[in-house]
Each structure stands twice: as C-alpha cells, then as structure tokens.
Design brief:
The protein is of the alpha+beta class. The protein folds into six domains: about 140 residues, Beta-Lactamase; about 100 residues, 2-Layer Sandwich (Beta-Lactamase); about 110 residues, PAS domain (Beta-Lactamase, 2-Layer Sandwich), CATH 3.30.450.20; about 100 residues, PAS domain (Beta-Lactamase); about 160 residues, Reverse transcriptase/Diguanylate cyclase domain (Alpha-Beta Plaits, 2-Layer Sandwich), CATH 3.30.70.270; about 240 residues, TIM Barrel (Alpha-Beta Barrel). It contains 31 helices and 36 strands.
Length: about 1100
C-alpha cells in the first residue's frame, strides 16, 4: 500500500468528516437565527398593536365619560331650573293666602267688638274701639299693618300716616299714576265684598321710594268700611329666592358636584365649597377664584354653555380643573352653574387604565409562552432537519446506525412531550386544519369527563353550552384561521351535562413555511374563580341595598357608608368617613338613652330600635336603627355594622291611623269620640267665659228610603254632600260631626251670654242649615231632595256631655213629630221664644192677607214752613197684640221674604192716597215718599210693578218719590242705575235714605239719577252736642248742593236743630217738630206748620 496515497485519503476523510458535522450545524444556526428574528419581529408587532389598542380604548372611554358628565350636568341643571320655576310660580298664591288670613283676623276682631259693644255704646265709640284695636298690630317683620277706609275714599285708619286719618283722598295715586284708593274701593265693591288690588307704596326703609304692593280688602258692612292690609311683592319674592337657595345648597351629585350662584354683576350668592365667598364680588376675591367667577358671569351673559376653569379643591386646597354648565335664571337675574371637579373623570380613566395594566402581565405571559412554544417547535424542527442532513452525508456508511439513533431520540422527545402534556395542570386540545380534534390531554379528560376516544374526530363546538351562541365559536375559529391567537372565557359542556367556565386560548400552530398545521387550545378551569367573583359582587350589591349601612371600627370611627346612607342622611362618604356617628345626633335623646343602647350592644352584640337623627340639611327624622358588633376569631369586637331605615312615611301612616280614630272615614268630619271631647272642653270653656253654646242634632228625613231605592252608594254621596253643606253653613270655630248613619251634630260655641240672644243665634244657624239641606242634590246624575229634622239644646253649666247629646236628640224627635223639615228647642223657655217668632211670622202673613196693615204719614216741610208732601210709614194693628212696632215685624219680613208682598201693599196703598190728593186742587202739589227695600228693588219686574201700580191707581208719577237705602248699592250698581233711569223717564223721583250711615261712593253717587239726599236722624239727634255729627250733616248738605240735589233732614225735633240745619243750607225737614206720623185725614196738608 502506498503510504502517501493512504495519508492523502486520510486527510480527505478528515475534511469530509468536518463538513458533514459543520454543515448541519451551520444550517441549524441559520434556521434558529431566522426563526428567532421572525419571532422577535412578531413579538414587537403584537406588542405595538396591543399598546395602540390600549391607547385607543382609553381615548374612547375618556370621550364617553366626558359625554356622560355633560349629560349629567345638563340633567341636574334642568331639574334645578324646574324647581326654581315651581318656587317662583307660588309667590303670588302664597302672598294672597297670607293676606286673606291677616284680614280674616282683623275682621274677627272688628266683628267681635261690634257685637259686644254696639248695644252698649254710641256708634262713634265703637268705631274708635275697633280702630284702636287694629292700630298697633304689626306683622310681616313690622312691614304689615291694617288700614281702614270708607267707601268715599276717606282714611279711617292709616298707622303709617295717622295725620291723614279723617282726610278724604279718593284720587290719591302712586308714582305710575295708578289710583290707589279707587282700586281698593273697587275691590271691596265686588259681589262678595272682598278682593285684591295692586299698586305701589312707599318702602318702610326708603320713605321716598315706592315699590309694588298687593293689598287685600274686605267690606265691613256695619260702618261701610273696607278693612285691609298688604305687603310688598318683592319681599315675598325674596322669601321664595331664599327657599330656592336653601334647596340648591343641599343638592349634590356625583362625588363633588354642586350648584353655584352669582348675580349678573358678579356677586356670589351661593358657594357650597366655600361659603365665606357668598356676598362678595369677584373683584374682591383672590386671583384664581376671581378669574373663575368672572368667566362664569361672562358665559352667563353670552347665553350660557359648558366651560372649563380652575378652582381650589376642598380636600387639598390646590387648584384643580372643573367643568361647569352655566345658565341664567331670567326672572331673578341669577347666573347658575352646575359644576363638578374633573378629577372624577380622571379617576374613571385611571381605573380603566389600571384594568388594562392588570391584564398586561397575563397577555405578556401568554405571548411569551407562545413565543417559547414557537421557538421550541422551531428548535425541534431545525434539530430534526440537521439530523436528517447529517444522515444524508453519512448515509453511505452510517445510515442504519444513524436512523436507529434518530428513532431513539424522537421517541425520547415524544415521551417527554407526552409526559409534559399528561402532567400539565391545564387542559390541552389539538385539532387539525379542518378543526377535527386529534388530541386531548388527561387533564382535559379529567375535567370534562370525556375520554380521548369520545372526542377524536369531533369538532370543538360539540363542547358548546346550550345557551352559548354558535356565532361566537365561529368567530373564534375565524380569528385562529387568520393566524391570530384568541383568548377569553367560555362555558364548556361536560360529559355529565353540567358546565364549567374555562379561560381559553386558541392559537394556530405554524410550520416553517408559516402554514397552519394544527390548532392548539389551552383551557384553564376558572369556575371557582368566577364563583368567588360573583360572591364578591353579590356582597358589594348587598351592601348597596335600600337600607342605609355604616361600618365603624371598634372606636366608633366611621370607615364606610353606602349610597342609601347618603340618600337618607344627605351626608356623602367624604362628609362622614373619619367622623363618629355623633354627627347624626338630633338632640332629642338624653345620655341615658345612648348609654342603654351601647350597653345592649356590648352585652348582646346587637341593638335595634327607633331613634331620631338629624340630616345634613338640619332636618330631624325618625329611623329604625340596628347596630351589630362584628367579632374576630378571638371573640373580640373588631367592627360595628349599622343599618338604618327612614321610617318617616311609616310614622305618617301611624298618624293617619290616629286620624281615622277621631274622624269619620266617609265624610272626614269629626266622629263621636272627637265630638264628645270637644263638647267636654266647650262646656268647661263656656263656664269660664260666661258664654253660651248649643248643640244641633240633625237627622235626614227618609234616608232609609233612599238607601233602599237608589242603593247605599247614592246614600254615601248624599251624606258627603250634606257634610260639605253643613261645614259651609257654620263658622270655622264651630264643630260639625257625624255620629253614624244619617245623624249629624253641629256644636256652636261662643254664642251670646244672654240665653235669649244665644237661642236666636242658634235658630238662625239652624234655619240656614235647613235651607241649605233643602236644596236639590245631584247623586251621580239623579236629582234628589232631602230635608232635615233638627233638635237644639243650649249649653247647661250643670249638664254632662252625654246628657247634652240626649237633650238635642230628644228635641230632634220633637221636630220629627212636628212634621219633619223643622227645628225644635229642648229648653221649654227657648222653645217658647222660637214659637213666638214663628207665630209672629204667621200673624204677619195673615195681616198682609186680611188687611190688618195701615199707612201713617209724616209731613215733609220746606225751610219756609210749607208742607211739601209726606212719607208713607207702615203700621200693623193686630186684633190681640195691638199696635205692633215696625222694629219687630220689618226685620222679620226681611228675613222671611214677606217684605215683597208687604212692600207691594205699601206701594199700592200709597199710590191710592197720592191719587186722591192729586184730585184735590189744594193738595195736588203734594209729593209722597215711599221706602223700597233692597230685596224688593232687585226683583226683575220691579219697574213694571211700579208702572202698573201707577196705572191702576191713577197716581201722578212725578209726585211719587221712591226712597232707597245705601245698602242697595252693595250689589250690581249698573242694574240699579238702569231701573232708576227707566222709572225716572216716566217722572218718578228718587231719594237716598239714611245717607251717611252705610255704603256710599262718590263715583257711584254722581252717576245715580237722584233728586234728593236724606240726612239720617242719627246725625240730627246729637247735632248740637257732637261736632262730628255736625260736620257730617254740613258735609252732606254741601255734597247735595254740589251735585244739584235737594237735601232733607229727618228726625228734627227742636227749633234749634232746624235752625242749625238751615244755617248749613238744608232745604226741607221731617220730624216730631212738625208732627208725629198720622193718618191721611189727620195730617196737616196746607198752610205753615
């Protein structure tokens, strides 16, 4: 053998051996470098994409939160503006009700003095008593007072300018030219004798400046006064503004949201975050606050809108950005801002960012695992390829050995991989590219209950829970087919039918060419974690119940509250955390109460009961409180948990139950129990005050028949209407009660001390009730008539409550026995008086029918002593009673309506006498004055009655003079003028009787077609002694002259009186000086008298 040849062959062999070792290694290193580069590139791309998606998500969340914040500010602003408009709209109604109440009080005082003193004192003294009683009364923080004017426009009482009292000022006007006095008089002339008037009047604190004022007046008939009061509308608007400010001050929304208010000039009206700024102009504030408030004012002046500005944070004191919605409250000139700190929004964004950050480790871990898996697969593939290349180079002499070694290595790797999958704590599922399952690991079999043979060849969606959407599975596999990884949580249906939640990651397995060869799904059972999360959510939800909850440590320091606690108390978490429960203390419980409560908590671990606490706005409210001690493992107290429930409504319901115990549920009238209690008090009070009272027992006639025919529902309607009519028929101080069924009782308190007058008052009320209850009823479309039977019992100082009811009940049965629809007194003496009045009424009817009436005539004489005519005066000569005084039967005729036939008889008989005089040349010049009552004049056919009477009797119309009283002018003046004008066109004359004693208005007086004014005898009687009477008489004469009217004085009894009246310019006289009333035959009709 050639040594050289052998040496050369050996060298070549060594080089070939080096190549077959080096090339596979270089190939392996190159492959690893490429795979690692691609992997790093994918890692970088996925990392960049994840960060980009995170930033985009945060921007979307921020935009949504900003929009929600603006919507919340808009909603809070709309709610607050609605409340302000509601408060502002109530101003006028509140002021009107208050004025009515004040005038009610004044009228009660005036009426009480008039009733008590008028029988005992001259009218002038009684008037002065009323004036002085009201002079010093003040209200409305000293602004309010009572004024009294008469219907001519004279100041009677003016506490703010007493020097004007007695002066006539019908045309006084405010600074706008509005007539003040005329407006008040017109309000009192309304049909109800009451009304409102607006004008401007001097401010108490600025005597030279006027402001809008609303007044309410009511007509006081006895003296022809209007009594009223008023107040400045601006003051009541200020009260409503304060109410609105208080409400806005209490409003909170979100964590830091509240309302701020400024006026148009920039003065702070409301600053909940810093109340010390209220009342200051923004120019007086530190630069930061001044700039913010100036920006708010400018935004309001520009129409409002959203703005951003900086404001000191109440917790840190540092300037923090805020967002506000600004609007202008036009009626009051407020610039209102609904504002909230932007850190609320930043907190939400930070929370969202934290959620993303918390998920980042898991995402990076997943990505890392995927990268490691990819690297492992690439490494294995490269290693196999290197082995294959090496076998190719060495195939000619080591193919079999290498092949066996490769198989041994592959088996070892597969065994390792199989062991890793078998021991994996998570489930693994592998599918081919058609999504058919090719492998599951033992953990999957254990968790799901499916064996490998059960799932091989199946599609993964066979694991879908019945309520899971198929489209979601399709979306998952679509992501995987695109070469991306999907991860999320899915419910998996197990072999036994129950489902388990898994955290699932589905990834495609790529070969070296990037093609998908398999899909790998990793499933982690998260059912227990989801259960724990759900329990935590349930616990959090339970804490946010409708009951307020508060958690405190063992020292009693508050650690946490829920939203219901804030809703109930008004305190936010920022208000109370770190405080003790004493912040809620109302002051209604003493120390012993709290000591007992905490003793129970320490002894038993719990206390519950009713307690009064105070809300943040200062309101005290009742609550049901439960305190429970929370103990640690060693039995020591670690915390206290309190639950509280607002029981305000429950307490109101208890009050309603108590109300039902004392009031009738059908009519809402006091029931028998409450009536007996009030009657017991009234009896005792009547003894102390020496005043009488009465019970009126009312039973509805034939009520059972109504129930039997129309049904009990119609009976209930009738009872309710009867109750309302009874309440309208009595005073507010009287009691109307329903005993049951159709029985009612009316208790009249504070009647006259004279039993006779008290009985008359009770009878008047009873008659009003009888007339009211006799009016037809509308029972659901059915007209029904019903009458009452009534029994009256006057208070007896020695009688018991039950005895009083029994007496009234017996009197009621007497009324039923008398034919129903009537009233009877229990007291025989009182019954006799009532019977006497009824008898007098009956006799008067007979007198009108049978001609027991007669006319007397009193001469009317000129200043020269010539008889001008006479006044017709009715007299009643009863066969048994004798001559009945007109003072007894004229009021009775007015009350009963007999004044109509009586007045017609007087008119007819007077015209007959006038016709007789006209037929005598010596008496043809005489006139006849006939009084006409207001009720008679208001008849629709009154004009025709007069004309028919004149035509029938032949009396000359131009010699007839109708005398009207001032009380006639209280209602429908236009109708009065129309009738007077119609009669005057036929020659009939008119005289205003008793002038100066009642209602007179110069504005109406000058419109009336009058011929004469008559001075009332009350002014003539004391003419020589009373300067006021003399002044009134002189004024009436002067007024008559100015209006072109003749003036006659009645009640002239002495020459001195006549001479004094003549000095004033009086035209004619009537009175005892010229003769008493006499028959026509006895009357001196010619010559001087």
């Amino acid at each position: 053998m050639n040594p050289f040849r052998a040496s050369r062959a050996g060298h070549t062999a060594r080089r070939l051996i080096a190549n077959e070792k080096t090339v596979p290694r270089l190939h392996l290193v190159g492959t690893l470098v490429v795979v690692l580069s691609l992997t790093l590139a994918l890692v970088g791309f996925f990392s960049w994409q994840n960060l980009a998606e995170q930033r985009a998500s945060l921007h979307r969340v921020e935009a949504v939160l900003q929009q929600q914040q603006r919507q919340r500010l808009s909603a809070e602003m709309d709610s607050a503006l609605s409340y302000i408009e509601f408060v502002r709209s109530r101003t006028n109604d509140v002021l009107r009700r208050s004025l009515i109440n004040q005038v009610d009080n004044a009228m009660q005082v005036a009426e009480a003095i008039y009733r008590r003193e008028s029988p005992l004192r001259p009218a002038a003294e009684v008037r002065q008593l009323i004036i002085e009683a009201l002079r010093e009364v003040r209200f409305y923080e000293g602004r309010g007072y009572y004024f009294i004017d008469d219907m001519e426009g004279r100041f009677i009482l003016l506490p703010t300018a007493p020097q004007l009292e007695g002066h006539l000022s019908p045309d006084n006007r405010d600074d706008t030219g509005h007539p003040i006095m005329k407006g008040l008089i017109e309000a009192a002339r309304k049909p109800r004798g009451e009304g409102f008037s607006r004008y401007r009047w001097y401010l108490p604190d600025q005597p030279k400046q006027m402001a809008d004022k609303l007044a309410y007046v009511r007509y006081f008939a006895p003296y022809g006064w209007l009594i009223g009061t008023g107040d400045y509308t601006s003051k009541w608007e200020e009260l409503q503004q304060q109410e609105a400010l208080a409400h806005l001050r209490s409003l909170r929304f979100g964590v830091s949201g509240y309302f701020g208010l400024l006026d148009r000039q920039g003065r702070s009206l409301l600053s909940p975050s810093n109340p010390s700024l209220e009342g200051l102009h923004f120019s007086e504030l530190p630069p930061a606050e001044a700039a913010a408030m100036e920006k708010l004012v400018q935004t309001g002046q520009s129409g409002g809108g959203f703005i951003h500005y900086d404001w000191p944070h109440p917790n840190t004191g540092r300037l923090s950005p805020k967002t506000a919605l600004v609007k202008v409250v036009e009626p009051w000139g407020w610039v209102m801002a609904a504002t909230v700190f932007d850190n609320e929004l930043e907190s939400s964004i930070l929370h969202e960012r934290q959620l993303h950050d918390e998920g980042n480790p898991q995402r990076w871990l997943t990505l890392g695992l995927a990268v490691l898996a990819a690297l492992g697969v690439a490494l294995g593939a490269s290693f196999l390829f290197s082995r294959w290349s090496r076998r190719l180079f060495q195939a000619y002499h080591r193919e079999n050995a290498r092949h066996l070694e490769a198989l041994r290595q592959q088996a070892a790797e597969l065994k390792t991989l199989s062991r890793a999958m078998a021991q994996s704590p998570v489930s693994i599922l592998i599918t081919d590219t058609s999504a058919s399952i090719t492998y599951v690991n033992p953990e999957f079999e254990r968790v799901s209950g499916y064996s490998l043979s059960d799932v091989l060849g199946q599609q993964p969606n066979f694991l879908r829970a019945p309520d899971e959407d198929q489209a979601r599975y399709e979306a998952i596999w679509e992501v995987a087919r695109q070469g991306q990884t999907w991860q999320g949580e899915l419910p998996i249906r197990c072999h036994d039918g129950h489902r388990l939640w898994h955290k699932v990651q589905v990834s495609p397995v790529l070969n070296d060419q990037g093609s998908i060869t398999q899909y790998l799904a990793i499933l982690e059972d998260v059912t227990e974690r989801r259960r724990i999360d759900a329990e935590q959510r349930i616990a959090a939800t339970a804490f946010e119940t409708q009951e307020g909850m508060m958690v405190a440590d063992r020292q009693g320091v508050i650690l946490k509250i829920n939203q219901a606690f804030t809703d109930i108390t008004g305190y936010s978490s920022e208000d109370v955390v770190g405080q003790t429960p004493q912040i809620l203390k109302s002051g209604r419980h003493d120390r012993a109460f709290y000591d007992s409560m905490w003793h129970a908590v320490l002894e038993t671990g719990q206390w519950q009961g009713e307690i009064w606490n105070r809300r943040k706005n200062g309101d005290i409210f009742p609550e049901w409180l439960t305190i429970t001690a929370v103990k640690g493992e060693g039995g020591e107290v670690t915390h206290y948990v309190s639950t509280l429930t607002d029981i305000t409504q429950r307490k109101a319901a208890e009050n309603e139950i108590r109300h039902l115990a004392f009031f009738d549920p059908l009519t809402s009238l006091p029931n028998r129990r409450l009536l007996l209690d009030r009657l017991r008090q009234a009896l005792a009070a009547s003894v102390r005050r020496q005043r009488n009272g009465a019970l009126i027992f009312i039973d509805l006639d034939n009520f059972k028949t109504l129930n039997d025919t129309l049904g009990h529902d119609k009976g209930d309607l009738l009872l309710q209407q009867v109750a309302r009519r009874l309440q309208h028929s009595v005073r507010e101080s009287d009691t109307v009660s329903r005993l049951g069924g159709d029985e009612f009782v009316v208790m009249l308190d504070g009647l006259d001390s004279n039993p006779v007058d008290a009985a008359r008052q009770a009878e008047t009320v009873g008659e009003n009730i009888r007339q009211a209850l006799n009016l037809p009823y509308d029972l659901a479309g059915n007209e029904y008539h019903c009458s009452p039977s009534m029994g009256v019992a006057l208070f007896d100082q020695h009688s018991q409550v039950d005895e009083m009811l029994q007496r009234a009940d017996l009197a009621m049965y007497q009324a039923k026995a008398a034919g129903r629809n009537t009233l009877r007194f229990f007291d025989p003496a009182m019954q006799a008086l009532v019977a006497e009045r009824a008898a007098l009424e009956s006799d008067l009817r007979v007198a009108i029918r049978d001609g027991q009436l007669l006319l007397a005539y009193q001469a009317q004489v000129s200043a020269a002593g010539q008889v001008l005519g006479a006044e017709a005066l009715v007299r009643w000569k009863h066969p048994q009673r004798g001559l009945v005084s007109p003072a007894d039967f004229i009021p009775l005729a007015e009350d009963t309506g007999l004044i109509l036939p009586l007045g017609l008889w007087v008119l007819t008989e007077g015209c007959r006498q006038l016709a007789e005089w006209a037929r005598s040349p010596a008496h043809a010049h005489l006139t006849l004055a006939i009084n006409v009552s207001a009720r008679q004049y208001r008849q629709a056919d009154f004009v025709q009655q007069v004309l028919d009477t004149l035509a029938t009797t032949g009396a000359p119309a131009h010699r007839l003079k109708l005398e009207l009283t001032e009380s006639l002018l209280l209602h429908d003046v236009e109708d009065i003028i129309a009738k007077m004008t119609a009669l005057q066109a036929h020659g009939v004359g008119f005289s205003l009787d008793d002038f100066g004693t009642g209602y007179s208005s110069l504005s109406y007086l000058k419109r009336l077609p009058l011929d004469q004014l008559k001075i009332d005898q009350s002014f003539v009687r004391d003419l020589l002694e009373d300067a006021n009477d003399a002044t009134i008489a002189r004024t009436i004469v002067a007024l008559g002259k100015n209006l072109g009217l003749a003036v006659i004085a009645e009640g002239v009894e002495t020459v001195e009186q006549r001479d004094r009246l003549a000095s004033y310019g009086c035209d004619a006289y009537q009175g005892y000086l010229y003769g008493r009333p006499a028959s026509a035959a006895e009357l001196p009709l010619s010559g001087e008298v």
